[in-house]
Specification:
By secondary structure, the chain is α/β, with parallel strands linked by helices. It is built from 17 helices and seven strands. The longest helix is centred in the N-terminal third of the chain and has 26 residues.
Length: about 425
């Protein structure tokens, strides 16, 4: 029985059941026929595939014993005792309420985010679950890191304070569903071959990089990281891939990479690559980094076609107030450099950079959860391009909107719809 878990382990999880059954049969029948059961168990263990990844438990145990100061995340603490005073249990996502009974949720302390103890082998049954487990982890980490950095669709704008550039701070609630859908859409369009060289710009934390590596074992994957801190992700996150097949993380942007490297790629895959920059220049740089017959596949959120503040607070406003807010909102969208564009603008910019462009749209929905910090950012009146600034001349309406949003804190969240355009760019 020890061998069944220690040496065979997850390569054949049924081994333990077979051995236990043989042991019970031996106890009931006794000798001499009981030797058949012992032989049965021995033969089974001898012939089945083996992996010793159960030792991961001891690695985790050793780490916890040495690093005792880390605290359990608040949303995992007992809500029945200290919910009111300390917020225990707030934000917990019940996995069985989500698709596939799994949700990208943080279970480790924040200081250990991204730490992995169990790395499945590619042997037997464990090999079957390795890829799916890795893909789930990548989505989970991407969702958590997206929550912190607030990337994606942008409904407020402040060039001097990046923390105020977000409409919703990402929670790891149902975002995993959206991220998984976008990843599947991108790779379905990319049509990668095993020998392709792939570039992934835009501070990808693993959502695209590891999947690309799995699909191009004879090629190579480079990931561009604008911040040095993001390089830690690839250092701290182990992979079942051999070292020579792992993505290479490079600090820099499309512009700096094009200047410093002469390498060309078969495919460039990105998510929200053109959102925060001069779109024409982005497409020109992508064009310059592709092989003659190379292609790029990008997913870009169209802010103007995502859920808006007016839709969330509409039930709390009078008709005249809703109209006033909608008018201010439309003006905000039109004037903001981060929101005043659509899919046609992207297609035009890509075509102008020398690409043959194919595009299609995808609408996705998730549940978002409102926090007090979100409300403060949205209604901040000190920065241009924010809802707060746009509502500066309507203090009563602004206060009513604030109270409406505050009433949603701690509730079941709001349905949030996002509109994505998938661009398939062929270099010509």
């Amino acid at each position: 029985m020890i061998q069944a878990s220690e040496d065979v382990g997850m390569a054949d999880p049924y081994a333990l059941g077979v051995v236990v059954s043989c042991a019970q049969a031996f106890d009931r029948v006794g000798m001499p026929e009981g030797q058949f059961f012992l032989a049965h168990a021995a033969l089974y263990l001898t012939s089945c595939k083996k992996t010793n990844t159960t030792y991961a438990y001891y690695d985790a145990l050793d780490f916890v014993q040495k690093e005792k100061q880390y605290d359990v995340p608040s949303h995992l603490k007992d809500a029945s005792r200290d919910k009111e005073s300390f917020g225990h249990g707030e934000g917990y996502k019940y996995p069985h309420a989500f698709k596939d009974h799994w949700v990208a949720q943080q279970y480790l302390p924040s200081s250990l985010k991204g730490k992995v103890f169990y790395t499945p082998s590619n042997i037997g049954y464990e090999g079957e679950i390795a890829k799916e487990l890795s893909r789930r982890r990548e989505v989970q980490l991407e969702a958590q890191l997206d929550t912190e950095e607030s990337t994606g669709e942008i409904l407020t704008f402040s060039p001097d304070d990046k923390s105020k550039n977000a409409w919703f701070r990402r929670t790891a609630g149902e975002k995993n569903t959206v991220l998984s859908a976008i990843r599947d859409e991108l790779f379905a369009s990319a049509k990668l071959l095993r020998h392709h060289k792939v570039l992934i710009p835009g501070n990808d934390k693993g959502l695209l990089a590891w999947e690309a590596s799995r699909r191009t074992p004879e090629g190579g994957v480079f990931v561009l990281m604008e911040k040095a801190s993001d390089l830690d992700y690839f250092i701290n996150y182990p992979s079942v891939l051999p070292e020579v097949e792992r993505p290479v993380a490079v600090q820099g942007t499309l512009e700096t990479f094009a200047k410093e490297h002469s390498m060309l790629f078969d495919c460039i895959i990105g998510r929200n690559t053109a959102t925060r920059a001069d779109k024409t220049q982005v497409f020109k740089r992508i064009h310059s980094l592709l092989e003659k017959d190379g292609s790029a596949v990008l997913s870009e959120i169209i802010p103007s076609r995502c859920t808006r503040l007016s839709q969330i607070v509409a039930p709390y406003l009078k008709e005249t107030e809703r109209k006033k807010l909608t008018a201010l909102e439309n003006k905000l969208y039109e004037e903001s450099p981060l929101m005043g564009w659509n899919s046609d603008d992207l297609v035009s910019a890509a075509a102008g950079a020398g690409f043959l462009v194919h595009s299609h749209n995808k609408d996705l929905a998730e549940r978002r959860y409102i926090t007090q910090k979100d409300i403060e950012n949205w209604l901040d009146s000190d920065n241009q391009g924010t809802y707060g600034k746009a509502l500066a001349s309507e203090p009563k309406l602004c206060e009513k909107i604030k109270k409406a949003l505050e009433s949603l804190i701690g509730e079941n969240g709001v349905e949030w719809k996002t509109h994505h355009v998938i661009l398939v760019l062929q270099r010509v």
